[in-house]
TrEMBL record, chains A, B:
Involved in the assimilation of dimethylsulphoniopropionate (DMSP), an important compound in the fixation of carbon in marine phytoplankton, by mediating the conversion of 3-(methylthio)propanoyl-CoA (MMPA-CoA) to 3-(methylthio)acryloyl-CoA (MTA-CoA). This is 3-methylmercaptopropionyl-CoA dehydrogenase. Its EC number is 1.3.99.41. SUPFAM superfamilies: Acyl-CoA dehydrogenase C-terminal domain-like, Acyl-CoA dehydrogenase NM domain-like. It comes from Marinobacter flavimaris. Residues 475-598 form the Acetyl-CoA dehydrogenase-like C-terminal domain. The keyword Transferase does not apply. Its cofactor is FAD. Belongs to the acyl-CoA dehydrogenase family. It catalyses: 3-(methylsulfanyl)propanoyl-CoA + oxidized [electron-transfer flavoprotein] + H(+) = 3-(methylsulfanyl)acryloyl-CoA + reduced [electron-transfer flavoprotein].
Length: 606, 606
């Protein structure tokens, strides 16, 4: 099994050459310390940690899994040590405010870190990932006292966090939440209920775990408007803020899952557990979802990371393994057969992985700039700025989460395919990447939910198509600038055509939905995928434009990297982008072809 | 977890209404006993066995897996009993010649049986499935003595069989096979070497296992022309044909796999094992591949069965689980939320599964008629007939195997998706179907190999496009007949357009390949998938034509079944078939976008 290598060259290409992060950071308060040298040093250190500490635990963690004994969860061998190194390195607080022990760097730096960690070892990265969710929630909605008590140890990584939403009867439809919170005379609450699918719900990595829990107050309105948010620590902090009394929240069982086996997925039983209200009563869902865009982009990383990992390993295998002769004649006549890499169809699979991994990474970096502005708006209390960038990010979020995780699964499966039968054997790790990645299209809102969020909410309800108009205007302006270069012209033209089509599709769906509400759902998945392919095309053109410039004006540097960017852009436009057209056709087809059948007539097993 | 229900209604629809199997069987010698009543009774019995015996072992078999102890493999609890019932029921010999203990029914009956067994419990069905491969090989190439000794107990199911091709250094590229066979004075051979990925390589279901092994004679020519075929029994038969001395072939280890865990995948060590030549020296590969089309269609079943199973379970869940409200208004106002089935996007997933399962089944039944003729040709020694139908089947085989297993994986993944997060949890079985199905695009020739076989061999090399011309002529003739019915007309027109396009694409690739051999490989995958979508469209139109006829002239029978066929045809043409166009675009793109990059420039990890 090859090891993970952090793709630092590609990351720096995106940061410095494509998206001008140095210029971007110069406009941010949090960017003051994010000078190119510091960013370089951080990426290098993080890459080293991922390569040397996290990557070697990837397969063994899956093999061993987590164990539950007497209500206490043990993580696989090596996880505690790795987490200690992670916490000691100050990585958890990389993008957290300095006043609570963080390093105060821009949010985007945290995403870059998450991408590398998630690529090297996704299941491990979920523990600190969930803590981030808790940190964000407390930072935005907690009292100063709550921040001092919980946010500081979370930021230092001494404590970990969770998000407790799902219950047996509901995941997506949180209006059905039943967990009860009864007010006590001391101002605290007693929480009773069962939460399921709680990632990092219990573990041995930290001395305490801070659960952020959705529950209902007595007499709360039904549905989503009667849900409040609570902090429920595993151990109640004592007056010094140290770990005190054990609280009434216990892991009842660990889910047996397809993958991410080193990540503890818990059933948590709240049995009169002491909790503390966070944010206003009955507005828990809003509070929980404040940072949903960043959480979902955190999950979108799972589309990119595993694609990168699977690609790295498949590429190595394709260079080593010999089978048959290339159709265009022997490439390695002295060998018993040619390497897989000489077969065009194997290259099709590898380039698909590459286009997804690098195109997806570029989409993340594009979105991360918006996240920086949004977070700065929140941090500075500039609601208008926060809202503006949250809206921009909100349009991209379902595209990134929905589209990239679907393509991540495809890339991981292609990695197995390159290995042939060996891909199906556990020791090579390729099938593990498939199993681990498969969760990505399910949690943090399934692909179907992302699709509805994009088309139903962001595009139709909130902006009447305006979100598409605004985004495609950017794309079209960029494409127009590159019509004159003969290498870029065909792609720029194609992209211009697609921006027009995207708007037209939006209008046609909007009109159809006025007469038939089911159209919104029936078109949503194809609209999401179409949007993803066009967005990725834009992002590949941006990379290609830089590559052309460097090749023309570069000088000494090796040209292979830039040639590869052009070749991958060409591959993407010619072999993957055509899929957008089949989605365009499907999304315009009548909802009747989905809705006309009675449920009883769907199956005939008699 | 819901149980498997044999889709007998759909099977009978295909047999009796769409493909006129009664008429077809009337033309076959082996069809004499396959009267509609007998066929009905057999399907009913087989369905019952699959529902009551095999289906309940599906999840437990995965949980427990196979065990290796002292070189002996133990199958999961219940497997031995189930296999005993299977053998006692005479199922193994259903389509085998009566002279060796079989029931002499047409080959297609065996495929129907395999489909039901493979749907209820794919890993179990692999044990008898591998035996079939050994039976076919011995039947076609064995001496009369070998047939009496080995074929009879295999046909009765007292013994099982395997096919030993793959070695550590080669799977696809069998010219690299190294296992040695040294002739002995008694006319036998001593085999030495290592075979890997041997399904059913060892187990406790039968008293003996008959390995069919590829190996090299001393001084055999290099490559594929120096490979011979041997029978190597686990226990050497004594003079009565009973189990005698233990032979030198031992299971060295069991592979740990992504799925099909109840199927023993063995490393087999041949250590001077006694073997018997079967067929002519150095023609082993030809002998092994005589029945490859049927073996590959056996694997194509894995595209259909798991799609059916995953669909059945997902449909049940979608009717039970309540989440959110339908966009077109409350459907179940008295309930806390509407069932999933009322959401258009959930229906998109379910109908995709249904279209794949039923469309795939119909493709199998279409091909199975050709298999009947081919087998009859072989059995009667009518080489011309055998060859004619082998060619027809040979064109369809890579389409069925390659396309249907790819779509089977998609269907299984959609089943997980319908379940949301619950799909990822092992107890529901949905993720197991994904893991079990994933092997289907890898073994018996990967999708890439099927694609090359179709485009490179069957279409270009062997027939210069003639195979496509012949097949599309059938399709076009059928479509033309149905232009007058206004329900069928749009689909018939679309299909006519596609038959023209398919031929045009073939010609364009043929011309391009004359200048650039890589085109064959670079276009192959998209050509395969395109061919699959068009073939499935044809097969849906055939079903729709019957449905229209029955709705117009049927009378008393429930119309729901036929309405569902029309609705699924409509869904297929409007939502899935558009994908063919993106494959058409991709396949015509230049091979340059795959081949231009140096292998070293593919990755930049520094």
């Amino acid at each position: 099994m090859p090891v993970y290598k952090a793709p630092l060259r590609d990351m720096k290409f995106l940061l410095n050459e494509v998206f001008d992060y140095p210029g971007h950071y110069a406009t941010l308060t949090s960017g003051e310390n994010a000078t190119p040298d510091i960013v370089d040093a951080i990426l290098g250190e993080c890459g080293k940690f991922c390569e040397e500490v996290l990557s070697p635990l990837y397969l063994s963690g899956d093999e061993e899994g987590c164990k539950l004994d007497n209500g206490e969860v043990t993580t696989p061998a090596g996880y505690r040590d790795a987490y200690q190194q992670y916490a000691m390195g100050g990585w958890q607080g990389l993008s957290a405010p300095e006043e609570y022990g963080g390093q105060g760097l821009p949010a985007s730096m945290g995403l870059l870190k998450q991408e590398m960690m998630g690529t090297a070892n996704w299941p491990f990265s979920m523990y600190p990932g969930l803590s981030l969710g808790a940190m964000n929630t407390i930072f935005l909605h907690g009292t100063e006292d709550q921040k001092q008590t919980y946010l500081a140890p979370l930021t230092e990584g001494h404590w970990a966090g969770t998000m407790c939403l799902t219950e047996p009867q509901c995941g997506t439809d949180l209006g059905q939440v039943k967990t009860k919170a009864e007010p006590q005379v001391d101002g605290s609450y007693r929480l009773t209920g069962t939460k399921i699918f709680i990632s990092s719900g219990d573990h041995d990595l930290t001395e305490n775990i801070v659960h952020i829990v959705l529950a209902r107050l007595p007499d709360a309105p039904k549905g989503t408007r009667g849900i409040s948010l609570f902090i429920v620590p595993k151990f109640l902090p004592d007056s010094n803020g140290d770990v005190g009394e054990r609280n009434g929240v216990v892991c009842g069982s660990l889910e047996k899952k397809m993958g991410i086996k080193a990540s503890a997925t818990c059933v948590l039983n709240f049995d009169g557990a002491t909790g503390f209200l966070i944010g206003p009563e009955n507005e828990g869902l809003n509070c929980m979802f404040t940072f949903m865009n960043t959480a979902r982009i955190g999950t979108a990383i799972q589309g990119v990371g595993p694609a990168e990992l699977s690609y790295q390993w498949a590429l190595t295998y394709a260079k080593d393994r010999r089978s048959m002769r290339a159709l265009s004649g022997k490439k390695e006549p002295d060998q018993v057969a040619d390497s897989l890499i000489h077969h065009a169809d194997v290259r099709r699979m590898l380039l698909t992985q590459k286009a997804i991994a690098e195109g997806g990474r570029a989409m993340l970096y594009y979105a991360a700039r918006l996240a920086d502005h949004m977070v700065e708006g929140f941090t500075e209390g500039d609601d208008k700025k926060a809202e503006k960038y949250d809206d921009k990010l909100g349009f991209l979020t379902p595209i990134l989460k929905g589209f990239l995780t679907e393509l991540g699964c495809e890339a991981a499966n292609l990695g197995v395919q390159v290995f042939g039968g060996h891909g199906y054997i556990r020791e090579h790790g390729m099938e593990q990447i498939v199993r681990d990645t498969r969760i990505a299209t399910l949690y943090e809102g399934t692909t179907g939910i992302q699709a509805l969020d994009l088309l139903g909410r962001k595009v139709l309800l909130m902006t009447q198509g305006g979100a598409v108009r605004e985004f495609t205007l950017n794309i079209a302006n960029f494409a127009r600038k590159h019509l004159t270069d003969k290498r870029l012209r065909p792609w720029a033209l194609e992209l211009l055509k697609l921006t027009g089509q995207w708007n037209l599709l939006t209008v046609r769906i909007m009109l159809a939905a006025r007469k038939d509400r089911d159209v919104v759902s029936s078109a949503s998945y194809d609209f999401l995928m179409y949007s993803g392919y066009v967005t990725m095309a834009y992002i590949w053109l941006r990379q290609a434009a830089v590559a052309v410039d460097k090749l023309d004006n570069g000088g000494e540097e090796s040209t292979g990297f830039y040639q590869a960017k052009l070749a991958t852009t060409e591959f993407y436009f010619e072999r993957l982008l055509p899929r957008a057209q089949s989605h365009a056709t499907s999304m315009l087809s009548p909802s009747k072809n989905l809705m006309q059948l009675d449920a009883e007539d769907l199956a005939f097993t008699g």
